[in-house]
Automatic annotation (TrEMBL):
Cross-referenced Pfam families: Rieske, Ring_hydroxyl_A
Ranges of residues in domain Rieske: 56-163
Annotated Gene3D superfamilies: Naphthalene 1,2-dioxygenase Alpha Subunit, Chain A, domain 1, Rieske [2Fe-2S] iron-sulphur domain
Protein name, UniProt field: Rieske domain-containing protein
CC cofactor: Fe cation
PROSITE patterns linked: RIESKE
Sorted UniProt keywords: 2Fe-2S, Iron, Iron-sulfur, Metal-binding, Oxidoreductase
Organism: Zhongshania borealis
InterPro entries given in the database record: Rieske_2Fe-2S, Rieske_2Fe-2S_sf, Ring_hydroxy_dOase_asu_C_dom, Rng_hydr_dOase-A
Listed CDD domains: RHO_alpha_C_MupW-like, Rieske_RO_Alpha_N
Amino acid sequence: MTEIPSSSYKLTPELDKPLKISEVALRNNDTCAERYTSEAYAQKEWRKVWMKTWNVAGMSYHVAEPGETITMNLGKESIICVRGDDNVIRAFYNSCPHRGTRITEEGESFVNQFSCPYHGWQFDLKGVNILAPNDEDFPQGSPCGKARLKEIQCRDLFGFIWINMDPDTNSLEDFLGNVITTDLASYNIPDTIRVLNMTADSPCNWKIITDNFNEAYHVQVLHPGLIPYIEANYKACQFDTLPEGHNRGWFPSHNPSILQEGEEVAEHLAEIMRQWSLDPDAFHGKENHSKIRHALQQSKRELGEEKGYKHYKNYASYQFTDYVIYNIFPNTVMSIGPDGVQLLRPRPHPSGDPQRCLFDHWWMVHPVKGVKTTPSPAGGPDLPVQDCEYEHVMYGEKSLGTTADEDLSIAKMQQEGLNSSGFQGFYLPHQERRVQHFHEVLNDYMNAE
Ligand code: FES
Ligand SMILES: [Fe+2]
């Protein structure tokens, strides 16, 4: 297969799979258990990784108007993003310059100005103090017009607000690189609506979750329920380690895996086929299964726009059917399918405990005229296609969906096993090289000056 450098990567309509990128040469570094268990490692990681990388704070459409804010918590930190009266989106540490109190709570809100709940200092949307009670009583001069919230880097790109605490950071585009910026731009994510927003307080290090999404080796064992819809055999998939430190995995989908036994087309897939004017009975039998995906692509290309699937415009063939998973270093995992984006993201725990994390599950869908609900990736009833409420649960308290529950159940067991004196380091097959790449990139950040 021809490999190309990521700099010449582009998407064209006829592509049946993503272009293959020249992969990163791996060094076969050992992967120590401390990175999952040690408080000292986590503290260094905070400075070397979390304060140096771009992270998603929220959805752009939540800060569409001046005064709209998003407050995002990341580990011990909290960040406020707000659109100013000048239409610029800014981000600030959520810490009052009087005596440090947090000013806003996690989530979305609207403000005319920020008011600290402790002594009532107020700040305009540029973070500048505009009111302080008894402002004549400051020997060093009134804080009005002088004291300000500390600003950090902030960008609005691909429908997300991104933040970075490093004042000297690279641009977000350079950080993401050509492959990821090209792909994310092609999915029209700014048009989506977030219909699921859940966080589960989970009993594992955040990297156990990113590792899990960096390999599909476990799918055939842990998620047999996916086999009727998604390719689970590594030889038929494509994995890319990207030079900017991120990874990508491509899975031909809307097609039974070659691992599937039996002649039947699963009902869920049959229902989608009928929706696109295909007769599932015509594809009965194993020899016909491999034709389903192309038939769906063709049908969606022909009928999509008239059915209201406006986001299909300019899709490459594979994008009509397939799932592509993007692992953006360190923790932004996006699984993107034809009709929406799942964000599957672990965040370091606010307590600083390296053996816990917060696991976010967002589902953003493209609105289609006349379609009022969407199947929930978190299980349970279909979700209304509208901006949703936030839900925070403890691990085990409530289902996050069959697949995510299966992943989380094993995450706890892996964390426990990594605490064992018997852990001997990883023993990885080639198809798990995205895991190895992630850890080598992590080592590079940890060892950087
Ligand atoms: S700490 Fe914010 S006004 Fe005092
Ligand atoms: Fe999984």
